[in-house]
Amino acid sequence: MGSLPPSLDLPSPKRPNQSISYHQQQQGIDETTLVSLFKSQQSHLNYFFQNLDLSQTLAFTRTLLSSPGTIFFSGVGKSGFVANKLSQTLTSLSIRSSFLSPLDALHGDIGALSSLDVLVLLSKSGSTEELLRLVPCARAKGAFLVSLTSVQGNALAALCDMNVHLPLERELCPFDLAPVTSTAIQMVFGDTVAIALMEARNLTKEEYAANHPAGRIGKSLIFKVKDVMKKQDELPVCKEQDLIMDQLVELTSKGCGCLLVIDSEYRLIGTFTDGDLRRTLKASGEGIFKLTVGQMCNRKPRTIGPDAMAVDAMKKMEAPPSPVQFLPVINDQDVLIGIVTLHGLVSAGL
Predict the structure, then answer these.
(1) Where is the CBS domain (predicted)?
(2) How far apart (Å, rounded) are the C-alpha atoms in residues 285 and 296?
């Protein structure tokens, strides 16, 4: 059989010694270049802050604050991601907000828009076709239209009820094309306005936490000791006259690492830990068989009340002079009602 014509010649298999290592494929970059880029981005952001029209910003913030309806955000591409994020931020601050996709809006989603609402349109150039098509439809619904743009005299700004100019010196991209500085400016602007709204509406820490119940922020502000403690029937309790050796099963079986010493009315007398057991055994040897829990227990343990915040319980455990792994929970009459452990707090996500 004849050889293949030159145009169909297949490449020869690459021999092992011809392989290119991962590190050889990497383009070089040094610390000086990286520092220069960060400084340039900082300079571009400083330009934004120094040239932002605060009167426009104040008017925009007051418009959002006084809106009786929902604040919608819309954008395309990277600006769309920012718009979605800003909407989520406002929602987390108990402000009615939603993202409106400009494409989906023209296929039914604009039905969510009403004359009570504000529609904020994000576009660097102000010439985004999808937003320009959305404007007359949104205006027909009676919504108040605001554009956030970075190019002066753009088409979108001319069509909206209000425009806020977001000053952009240039993109960090060497071609001045990739939207990396403009989107950073949009995010910083929107998030700062969001915090202004949060303060103006006097949102409390508890209200904020209620919007984040599954996260660590919410748990630290919502969970109380009584929500995470072990209850009475789970406690490793004993009386002070009980022999230490008779209480070893109770000490080790409840997963608390301690015994809670109580009187006949369930008032807390003290605590005896597995560490106390080791120290007593080392100091007393066989004498431990005759010792009672009351003789060796700590009669001044750290305690906490059921209505204290769980995060404060963790702080109390970690406080000087030395950390502890648990806190007995007592009521106003010193009656033992539970125990909170460091393991339990961590397991609860605190």
Answers:
(1) 229-291, 297-350
(2) 14
Contact between 235 and 336 (Cβ < 8 Å): yes
Closest CA to 292 of 221, 244, 343, 231: 244
The Cα–Cα gap between 87 and 100 comes to 9
Q: Tokens for 342?
A: 């460091």
Please tell me whether the overall predicted TM-score, pTM, comes out greater than 0.90 for this model: no
Written as six digits, the tokens of 6 are 């030159």
pLDDT mean for each 10 residues of the chain (350 residues) = 47 49 64 95 98 98 97 97 97 95 94 97 97 97 98 97 98 96 98 97 80 63 87 92 93 89 95 92 89 93 94 90 92 94 82
pLDDT at residue 217, rounded to an integer? 64
DSSP 109: G
Supply 142's token pair. Answer: 């009676």
For residue 112, give the H/E element and its range: none
pLDDT of residue 207: 77
d(CA 78, CA 127): 15
CA dist 118 and 95 (Å) reads 12
Task: State residue 124's pLDDT score.
Answer: 98
Q: Please write down the HEC assignment for all residues of 202-223.
A: CCCHHHHHHCCCCCHHHHHHHC
pLDDT at 255: 83
HEC assignment per residue over 278-298: HHHHHHHHHHHHHCEHHHHCE
Q: Which of 249, 283, 268, 285 is nearest to 326 (CA)?
A: 268
Q: What is the DSSP string of 150-200?
A: SSTT-HHHHHSSEEEE------SSTTS-SSSHHHHHHHHHHHHHHHHHHHH
CA dihedral 54, 58, 64, 66 (to 10 degrees): -170
